[in-house]
Each structure stands twice: as structure tokens, then as C-alpha cells.
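As a representative case, we now present a protein record of this kind.
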Amino acid sequence: MIGKIKTVPEKAAFTIGLSLILFVPLFLFLVSVLFPLENWTKMIISSIAIFLSTLFILSAADKRHSRIGKGK
């Protein structure tokens, strides 16, 4: 899974990570309005989304750091 995340381009990885952080809480709120969800279910889904978004953002930062470091 880490290998597949590392193959995503830098800007796309950062955008995916940022959008996961921004839109998962909104999505969970809208779903919980339609279907009642327990708090622990929301917490588990949020923690998985935050973990994945962190991986995407760290991958993008690593690519940017290595690209800028090679340019010097």
C-alpha cells in the first residue's frame, strides 16, 4: 500500500490528503443525518481517514524535499 501511495504524483498526493482531512468530517455528518451512526463508528472512520491523509501528505512532502534537495 505504501508503494502505491508513493507512486502518486506530488501535487495529487497533497491534494488527496488535504481533501480527505477536509471532506471526511462533512461526509460523516451528512451520513449521520440520514443514517444514525454510533460515535465509535465515526471515530474509527475518521481515524482511518486521518491516517491515510497523513500518509499522502508525508509522501508529497518527501517527494518535494528530495526534488528540492537534488536541485542544489
About this structure: The mean pLDDT is 89. The helical segments are 2-6, 10-34, 39-71. The first helix runs from residue 2 to 6. The chain has three helices and no strands.
